[in-house]
Write a structure and sequence with these properties.
Length: 347
């Protein structure tokens, strides 16, 4: 339902017209004087009802049936277009298909599915439902841009996320806003802003707008960012806490990923025995049907093997396999990470 932040005579007159009432009937409906309604009609945006009358108008709009609310929205926002119900169903199906494509790193088809809607509609002319679908599509576009390594700039994950966050803020859907803020923190981390991303993760780990799973993921990523900064001791403690949360929540895939992150943190402090222990757990419990996860897991494993002279050649072989998959699926950020690991060992 459309809402009114500040009623003027224009919105009040539009509500009367949407309810298909005469000025006298509308005045009686609201319990206000007839001259008050006449004033709204004549002065329009130049007059503002008193605060108590604003609340009465809010209630009248909320209690109006769906047809009257639709008429009111059409009068207030004449440029807005309602997408046909059948199109909404198709848009929903395409979003669901795009989710699967992004998870499998089928970026070309995911882009095609999303752009058929993003290029068709001007968000400024959509009703609230259309704006919601547009925002969902933008978030998915941001996800695939992030996975491809396009994190900054006008055609980047950050730009898509920021635009979508504005839409969900306008729609007053705080959970979606918080989820996007979590994705923006990931972009910060990927762009090298480790301290800033760790602070943002820490705030979101206690943010009630997010689900328990998302809060646990934010806690895990606090450790990830700190580990990259070299603060592996504190990072390990945070990751262990997140791992327990995933176990309590019954999230096996997140639990497995947490062990992968723990393995790298132990490698960072030189404890290769523990690093191998945790990476073995991750490799035996995690699913690798996603190319992205396969590359991440092999990269972590190869990095650990490369840290020991006795297994260095095995590590290079595993990293070569990971790089091959990364190239095949256009995972440029992961490929850059693999190249960085190789250079670090050579140095």
């Amino acid at each position: 339902m459309v809402s009114v932040q500040q009623w003027t005579g224009r919105e009040a007159s539009a509500l009367r017209a949407a309810l298909r009432m005469s000025t006298r009937a509308f005045a009686e409906h609201l319990g206000v004087a007839l001259r008050t309604v006449a004033k709204w009609e004549s002065l329009g945006t130049a007059t503002h009802p008193r605060p108590d009358t604003q609340a009465i108008l809010d209630t009248a709009l909320a209690r109006a049936d769906s047809a009257a609310q639709a008429r009111f929205e059409a009068l207030i926002f004449p440029d807005r277009k309602s997408v046909r119900p059948a199109d909404y169903e198709t848009w929903t199906e395409d979003i669901e298909r795009a989710v699967v494509c992004v998870s499998r790193q089928n970026f070309p088809f995911a882009t095609s599915l999303l752009n058929r809607w993003l290029t068709r509609h001007d968000p400024h002319h959509l009703d609230d439902k259309g704006l919601y679908f547009y925002g969902r599509s933008l978030v998915l576009l941001g996800d695939l841009q992030r996975d491809q390594g396009a994190i900054l700039g006008p055609l980047s994950a950050r730009h898509s996320y920021m635009t979508a966050r504005g839409m969900f803020t306008e729609l007053d859907i705080p959970r979606r806003v918080a989820q996007i803020e979590l994705s923006l923190a990931v972009v910060q981390e990927m762009s090298g802003q480790l301290e800033a991303s760790a602070r943002q993760y820490e705030l979101l780990a206690a943010d009630e707008r997010l689900s328990p799973r998302d809060r646990a993921r934010a806690r895990l990523w606090v450790g990830t960012a700190l580990s990259k900064e070299g603060n592996n001791g504190y990072a390990t403690g945070v990751m262990v806490e997140a791992t327990r949360s995933f176990e309590d929540l019954g999230e096996p895939e997140d639990w497995s990923v947490a062990h992968q992150k723990l393995a790298l943190a132990h490698r960072g402090v030189g404890d290769l025995k523990q690093a191998l222990h945790y990476i073995d757990i991750a490799r035996t419990t995690g699913t690798v049907d996603s190319p992205m996860q396969r590359v991440r897991l092999d990269t972590a494993y190869g990095h650990i093997l490369l840290s020991d002279a006795a297994t260095r050649n095995d590590g290079l072989s595993v990293l070569d396999q990971a790089a091959q998959v990364a190239r095949q699926y256009g995972l440029s950020h992961q490929l850059h990470s693999i190249e960085g690991i190789r250079k670090g060992q050579q140095g």
